[in-house]
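REQUEST FORM: STRUCTURE PREDICTION
Request ID: SP-0412
Submitted by: Lab K.M.
Chain count: 1
Length (residues): 153
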Amino acid sequence: MSLSFSRSMRSLQSDSFRPSLATLIIASILIVAWFAWLVFASVTLYESSQDWEIQRDGSLVVRFSEEAVSRLRPGQRATLAVQADPNQSAVQLQAMVADTPSRTQNRLEPDTVKVTLLSGPLPKGVSSGQVQVQVETVSPLTLITRASSQLAR
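STATUS: Completed
RESULT:
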C-alpha cells in the first residue's frame, strides 16, 4: 500500500498545472473583455415611422406613436430613406427634428413631429419612405437593465 501511495505523490509532484492555469487566464481575459464591451459599447436607439407628408416649405410632418413623440426633442438627428425608383437602392437624406407638439407656439397634432431636411429637397416623384430619428445612445448593460426592470413589473 505504501508503494502505490508514494507513486501517487511523485505523480502529483511532477504534475504541471500550466494547462489549467493557461485556461483560467484565457477565460478570465474573455470575461473581462465581454464585461468591458457590456459597459462601454454604444447602441443607438431609433424611433421610426413611414407615415409622413411633405409641407409647402419642404419640411415633413411625421406621425409617431404618443410614446415615441414623448422621447423626441428639437435638434435630434433624423434620416429619411426614400426610393424614387423601385429598381434603384434607397437614398438616405439627412434631416433634423425641428418641432414637437410639446412646444406651445406650434400647431402640431399630439402625435406629429416636424422634420426639416438638411441635405436638400426630396427627389421628384417620392411620396413614401421611412423616417428614423436617433433618440439616444446607450450601453448594452443599460438595455439589459431596462429589459429586466420591465420583466419584473
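NOTES: The domain at 43-152 is CATH 2.40.30.170 (Elongation Factor Tu (Ef-tu); domain 3).
Reviewed by: T.R.
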